[in-house]
Design brief:
TIM Barrel, 8-stranded parallel beta barrel, alpha/beta, GI Alpha 1, domain 2-like, 15 helices, 2 domains
């Protein structure tokens, strides 16, 4: 399916306002809803797993790369979704999950990681070695980042003799606790000079490892266009901004730009990003945020009807008793952020057995009765209820899917796009 991505990149480079959404989530309901959305619209998507979600040690989901691929294939079959619409990507693959180790030890783990991803069938590989390991600075210079990236690219190439995979390099991820802002409170875009330096460092590093022929298959460069969000605030990209990065990408064959943290932006931002060269647009927390919105809405509806399932209380107790996923992101006393913060740190708790049991209890209680329209009007937005009317499945599942789909809708930017199979 990497041919689908190459086609979109080629058309974007030719000036078409086209892009593909990359769904960066391991939450099953988010994945199913995204697949069904893609099938109904007949548009391709990328489904991405990150190195902390899915790795050879299981990640926080308990899934290896093969497990994740098996899950995606099973979901696609279960939902009658054409598998050709889905390309699998690996996000931020590198030593990040093992930064507490020495660089040598963490890189050895990263080599096993990328080999496992490629062997499992992932075709879009984002290599990210930008963060320091034990005893190193938090953010590494381009030369070290590129050298380590080239090492991992060598492993990927050895694992994919048919050379079917495409690569993404670079990173623009905020540090724990919030986004990078300038003195005026704006999110500064990556400068053309910085983007050129990143590309140059990688080109040199690839040449040293005899990987010069990889250049046409580097399909994405992660840069910051000026989109970001903090726990309680969205930094909206100015629509008149043009950081001049499209000119940089056009200097490389087959390259486009990739935008991370596009969650929660105004709908007009997404076609504008496509115009600026961002053919890959990543979304993750906004979709698990929508999933949580649907669950909490159902929890509220049941409470109004006299059934106190207590999902929110259960999740609060779980997060307070096991705080490692949100500490460093939210203040200890910030209960609001724990539940509704835009970083959606609560997403790390849904795989927990306590959360799984609570969600099952909620769904069973809601499915045992038909929730009346006036009750639903109190807790769901009209566009969600309208979308749910046209979906399949139980009332509860339709509401969850609809909430997620509404969050996905801005990524369907195809005014000029026709799906090319």
């Amino acid at each position: 399916m990497s041919e689908v991505l190459r086609d979109i990149v080629s058309r974007n480079r030719a000036g078409e306002c086209v892009a593909i959404p990359s769904i960066c989530s391991a939450q099953p309901d988010v994945l199913r809803a995204s697949m069904k959305w893609a099938e109904r619209l007949d548009r391709p998507i990328v489904v991405e797993a990150t190195s902390n979600q899915v790795n050879q040690d299981g990640g926080y989901t308990g899934k290896t790369p093969v497990d994740f691929v098996d899950d995606i294939n099973a979901m696609a079959s279960e939902c009658n979704v054409e598998r050709e619409l889905i390309t699998l990507g690996g996000d931020h693959l590198g030593p990040q999950a093992w930064r507490h180790l020495s660089a040598d030890a963490a890189m050895e783990k990263a080599r096993v990681l990328v080999d496992a991803y490629v062997a499992a069938g992932f075709e879009k590989i984002h290599l990210d070695c930008s963060e320091g390991c034990m005893g190193e600075d938090p953010q590494l210079p381009d030369a070290i980042t590129a050298a380590r990236t080239a090492e991992l690219a060598r492993v990927c190439e050895d694992a994919a003799p048919e050379k079917s995979i495409i690569y993404v390099i670079g990173t623009e991820v905020p540090p724990p606790g919030g986004a990078r802002v300038d003195e005026s409170g704006d999110i500064p875009a990556t400068s053309p000079g910085a983007a050129l330096a990143t590309l140059g460092a990688h080109e040199e590093a690839f040449a040293k490892l005899d990987l010069g022929d990889l250049k046409p298959r580097i399909a994405g460069l992660v840069v910051q266009p000026g989109v970001e969000f903090s726990p309680m605030h969205v930094h909206h990209m100015p629509l008149d901004r043009d950081p001049g990065l499209r000119d940089v990408m056009m200097g490389w064959p087959g390259l486009c730009l990739e935008a991370h943290s596009t969650d929660y932006q105004h709908p007009a931002v997404f076609p504008r990003l496509a115009e600026l060269g961002f053919a890959f647009q990543k979304v993750g927390p906004a979709l698990t945020f929508a999933y949580r919105q649907a669950l909490y809405a159902l929890d509220s509806a049941l409470r109004i009807s006299g059934q106190n399932v207590g999902l929110m209380t259960t999740m609060e107790n779980l997060m307070v008793s096991e705080p490692h996923y949100w500490q460093g992101h939210y203040a200890q006393e910030n209960q609001v952020a724990r539940h509704v913060g835009l970083a959606d740190r609560i997403r790390y708790y849904w795989p927990h057995s306590v959360a799984q049991k609570a969600v099952a209890n909620l769904r069973n209680a809601a499915e045992a009765q038909k929730l009346a329209d006036p009750l639903l009007w109190q807790v769901f937005a009209p566009e969600v209820l309208e979308r749910a009317e046209g979906l399949g499945g139980s009332q509860v599942q339709r509401l969850i899917d609809a909430q997620i789909e509404v969050a996905l809708d801005p990524y369907d930017i195809r005014e000029k796009e026709k799906h090319h199979g």
